[in-house]
Amino acid sequence: HVQLVESGGGLVQPGGSLRLSCASSGSIYDTMCMGWVRQAPGKEREGVAALYTGGSNTRYSESVKGRFTISRDKLNGTLDLQMNSLKPEDSAMYYCAVRRGYIGDSLTPGTYNYWGQGTQVTVS
Fold this sequence. Notes:
Elements: E1 2-7, E2 10-12, E3 18-26, E4 32-39, E5 46-52, E6 58-60, E7 68-73, E8 78-83, E9 92-100, E10 114-115, E11 119-123
């Protein structure tokens, strides 16, 4: 079983930066994907970044590519999302998620097994 707790959200002006962090506990194996999924009011969930725990493979949605960076500190059990050049359309609840399997479809929110409670990001 995996437990996830996000932190780092807040209010930021357009063009600013935020760093989200997800503290994980439980069994994170080297054959899993860890990702960030966001959901804005009235919109569907969107996978924005994912990382394969067994190597250096990452995935980004087109909407955040070049602005967001996902990284993992395996020793401390954290997953981070560095968000730069933030736009108002980045405003959403951001969730940390974990699932088994390779990175192939890791931007599909419905494939994740474990979820955190979310942290709110508002760009205004």
